[in-house]
Write a structure and sequence with these properties.
The chain is α/β, with parallel strands linked by helices. It contains eleven helices and nine strands. The strands form two sheets. The chain has a five-stranded mixed sheet with strand order 2-3-4-5-7, with helices on one face. Strands 1-9-8-6 form a four-stranded mixed sheet. Helix 5 links the parallel strand 3 and strand 4. It starts with a helix and ends in a 7-residue tail after the last helix.
Length: 266
């Protein structure tokens, strides 16, 4: 029952975030200046609770998205559905390439790779995300080992990867690299869908389910806030995260990355 409620909670809270809308960071530019810009990308599908005028306005903004965003998105989806960890030498130090989707076993493989290839100077991420819980575990491991993190130009680190990344003691998102955040989503099982339907038979049961979803969502947000603060990142990160629809991705500008202490390499 608890697992069902947690799944339903994630879905309903996601719907609440959709209704709130999300900030627009899309801008245009040319040359090196464009690499400093941020963007929000949702794609060409009308979002739930999005009105037709809102959809058209969003599409007009997305036309102005800097081309580097799409380059980074293509790169981070090329790594496969299981994160790999590959050591290599770069400028006299050993780094670890973390590539692909963050799967259930990624945190333990990260721990093993750091030990097997010690000393590691930096972990370079190129990942579209994956398992949110595992992303947090990876961040905790990186912080305990005092490892620096980096996203290289032309690469991307989004969703659960963005959570893992801020575990780095020193963090560098190069101009032209994508650092993307959005509210996490929950995939409902068939059992959870059946339970949700059965709980909506009257107003009282629907209200109870919704209240439970709100509670679970608040608990999840509190855990995320504690993690972000522990990693030395501004609480404004949470505002961008929570206001970005699960079907969208907000890629922070270089100025935002510095202001929110996501990038603390200066």
């Amino acid at each position: 029952m608890q697992a069902r409620v947690q799944s339903i909670a994630g879905a309903l809270i996601g719907c609440s975030i959709m209704a709130m809308g999300a900030p627009a960071f899309s801008q245009s530019g040319a040359g090196d200046r464009a690499l400093e810009l941020g963007a929000q990308v949702c794609g060409g599908v009308k979002l739930p609770f999005e009105t037709e005028p809102e959809f058209r306005a969003r599409m007009e903004r997305e036309v102005k998205t800097p081309s580097w965003v799409y380059t980074a998105e293509r790169a981070m989806f090329e790594g496969g559905d299981r994160m790999s960890f590959t050591p290599r030498m770069e400028n006299g130090q050993k780094i670890l390439m973390a590539t692909g989707t963050i799967d259930e076993g990624a945190a333990e493989r990260l721990r093993s790779s750091l030990r097997a290839n010690s000393p590691i100077g930096e972990v370079w991420f190129n990942s579209p995300g994956g398992n949110s819980r595992v992303g947090t575990e990876m961040g905790e491991i990186l912080r305990s080992e005092m490892i620096a993190t980096r996203v290289r130009k032309g690469h991307g680190c989004a969703s659960a990867c963005s959570t893992a990344f801020i575990g780095g003691i020193i963090r560098d998102v190069e101009p032209g690299a994508g650092y993307g955040v959005h509210m996490y989503s929950t995939q409902l099982s068939d059992d959870a869908v059946d339970y949700l339907r059965s709980s909506m038979v009257d107003k009282a049961s629907a209200q109870s389910t919704y209240n439970t979803a709100q509670q679970r969502g608040a608990e999840g947000a509190a855990v995320r806030a504690e993690y972000v603060l522990k990693m030395g990142v501004s609480t404004k990160w949470l505002s961008v995260w929570s206001r970005t629809n699960p079907g969208c991705m907000t890629y922070m500008s270089q100025q935002e990355l510095r202001d929110l202490f996501v990038d603390n390499s200066d």
